[in-house]
Fold these 3 entries.
Entry 1:
Amino acid sequence: MKTYAYAATFEPTEREGGFTVTFADVPEAITEGEDMADARAMAEDALGVALLTYLEMGRTLPVPTATEGVMVAPAPEVAMKIALIETFRAAGISRSELARRIGKDEKEARRLLDPDTSTKLPLMAAALAAMGQRLVIGLEAAE
């Protein structure tokens, strides 16, 4: 099962209670928060934006190698979009072929693959299934 979690380092800032967050494997994802909860939320957002930017630029996503720190993943809807775009690229098919497989027009497939366009879960799951993948949702303890 593939996840998009990366180890984050939370360092206290000069202001009381604040934290700066960095990712060794995704150096473009740098953020800060006023407290640990805010820093964690900002880290999820920064990581998602960085990973989507990698894909928009045609780059492959970095392999998570860092093991020290707090594991952070993008918000679920962002992780699903990342998974969809990565799966589409690996499938080596055209947008028209994806559209045909899910019974939609090419314009809908284009929106489906647009990182800036939100897509409903059933359509993303159908598109992943049409490319031989299955969306799996899991739970973990909140920190």
Entry 2:
Amino acid sequence: MDVYVARQPIFNKQKKVIGYELLYRSGLQNFFDHNDGDRATSDVITNSFSVIGLEVLTGGKRAFINFTENLLKSDIASILPPDLIAVEILEDIRPDKEIIEICKKLKRLSYILVLDDFVAIEQITPLIEFADIIKVDFLKTNVDQRKQLIKDVGTDHVKFLAEKVETEEEFSMAAEMGYSYFQGYFFSKPTIYKGRDLPSYKLNYLRIIQEVNQPEISFNQLEAIIKQDLSLSYKLLRLINSAAFGFNTKITSIKYALVLLGIKEFVRWITVIALRGMGDDKPDELIVASLIRAKYAENLAPKLGLYEQASDLFLMGLFSLMDALLDRPIGEILNELPISPAVKGAILGTEKNIFRNVYELVVAYEQGLMTQLDNKNKLLGIEESELARLYINSIHWVNQIFNYS
């Protein structure tokens, strides 16, 4: 699912960018077309922080985000980093006792507060003591109003931002009046950024992979993860009671099943389950290819003296086709997963290490690229017959695990 956020730069008197206002967009059409302000702001926050990335949108500069009355009262602002955002209080918000208390709290937490689109001093008097910036709409005000607002406020701690500045003349006039910041079509129209969001069930599976692959995880944590998902519980018990394990008695306890499997084997199994869940709208062949890569890379580990890195090699193979499964750039996905920099660099090709050599050998064998395979095999020193045996072993393992996931 594609999502969109527009950004419009905010400048100082030297015409240098000091931040960006982030704006709701439903598509590539550059205008606001939503009748629910709460939902629009929620989407801007979610898409900016979780999908596209604030670093992409603002490059480390401050993001100015509109907050409706409901969202201010729901305390959403206080979970966002105060050094990266400015909270814009919309002009239709009534400065009642609750809003004033919220402003006090946000100021204690070091947030920048911006009063948005005010044209008369009466509207903002109760909030002026909390404001860092007051925005004045140059399309809604005349010259006298723009001057009078600055004169009436008369405090050193408040700076004024002239928005919807459309000409050089308006910019010069605003600067002479005492405005500190500027925004509008004279400088730049909003620029739209697009990202791809994951459906919630795929995001849930990605989180499961993150959780179970943490460096230190206990049986109790694993049991809690399993019990949150009825499908996982069923599949685990089906697996542990299958012919693949051959236990004489029926296993009905989730915790006992985990103990019998062992943490390492369970983590591998649930990662496979999650991978299949994320790829339920993709061909099975793509998931099978990911699993074969994972097992083959792991099987090669002992032959290369990489006993301690076998799990890393498994994850390297498993995640190497994740971009095709999730329809997102592989770099974005790997940044969200708890894998080592060496593995990440091997998949992206930014590291020339032993992991990258194994990765290139696995891909060459999979695709029958004999010249590349010979070159890598000479480097790694594994007999050709052993390469074939380990690859067939990997296929058998995938066929078995695939039937019980």
Entry 3:
Amino acid sequence: MSLYPQLNFPRYSFRLRSCGGTNRIWDDIRKVWLVLTPEEWVRRHVVRWLVEERGVTPQLIVQEHPVDVNGQPQRADVVVFGTSDARPLLLVECKEPGVRISQDVYAQAVRYNAFLKARYIMMTNGLRHYIYEMGADGSYSMLTEFPDLP
């Protein structure tokens, strides 16, 4: 499993297995084995970090949340919902470690958030993380620290 580098998250232990020559990783929230791609490696770290380090209740996390972008079905990697109103609070777009978090990635997250209207968007490749807050006017401001999620 050495194809999956140490990311800029705490070290976590994951349940891994090889099945028919395909590496798989256990998703603790959905209770399923997933194909272990480099992007999935990042997603598993993000979800674990949100739960263990940021105190997000696992039941408030939805992975591969459907998003309609101009009539085209898409999926947001991770969406965290608020506890009081069940509205999206955080949208996370994950990329594999070799993909640079570029203006295109930012634009993708903003497109998805035009539908979701989460207060925060985060983009990560597991090595670099960027977090933005959406203002009342729909503009985004980069944050220097990850916010406390209510």
